[in-house]
TrEMBL record:
Disordered, as annotated region: 142-165
Compositional bias annotation for Basic residues: 150-165
Name of the protein this chain belongs to: MarR family transcriptional regulator
GO process terms (BP): response to stress
InterPro entries associated with the record: HTH_MarR-typ, MarR/SlyA-like, WH-like_DNA-bd_sf, WH_DNA-bd_sf
The HTH marR-type domain, residue ranges: 8-140
Xref: PANTHER family: HTH-TYPE TRANSCRIPTIONAL REPRESSOR YETL, TRANSCRIPTIONAL REGULATOR, MARR FAMILY
Length: 165
């Protein structure tokens, strides 16, 4: 039978599987003491804009606010980042790399690039740039469509209104 299983046809499921494959490749290269892809992304964002607030990091990485706060707490515990109140806004926390964080990030860059290449090598070379461009478009799509805004709950009709409708 040549039919595709429903899970193999569902876009969100395929994207999830691709993320799993990427994470597995990454983990195999960096080892248990290395950075996860998400940690690598957050440390890279901090290195790019040192002293960013956690809100700025949420925007830069796409990691939700509570997950980012927990991740930063774990990175602090590992001695990779420091967090302090912003001098411009006492409600905001600024995050900076420690020397250990900078060292680990720099050591991780070639491994992350190797993991990326290992995953991309599953595609024909002439399709890789287009694939990355399309992924960037998909990542931007939820923001463009307002998906980052909370959905309004539909009001339920009262029993009496339903009975007369």
């Amino acid at each position: 039978m040549s039919e595709t299983a429903p899970t193999e046809a569902a876009l969100s499921h395929l994207l999830h599987r691709a993320v799993q494959a990427a994470a597995d490749l990454h983990a195999g290269l960096v080892g248990p003491e290395g950075l996860t892809p998400r940690q690598f992304a957050v440390l890279s964002a901090i290195a790019f804009a040192e002293g960013s607030t956690q809100t700025q990091l949420v925007r830069a990485t796409g990691v939700d606010r509570s997950t980012l706060a927990e991740l930063v707490t774990r990175l602090i515990a590992r001695g990779l980042v420091s967090r302090e109140r912003s001098s411009a806004d006492a409600r905001a926390n600024q995050v900076s790399l420690t020397e250990s964080g900078r060292t680990l990030l720099e050591a991780s860059r070639p491994l992350a690039a190797e993991a990326d290449l290992a995953l991309l090598s599953r595609l024909p070379e002439d399709r890789r740039a287009r694939f990355l461009k399309d992924l960037r478009r998909l990542v931007a799509a939820p923001e463009d469509a307002g998906a980052d805004k909370p959905r309004k709950k539909k009001k339920k009709k009262k029993k009496a209104e339903r009975a007369t409708a």
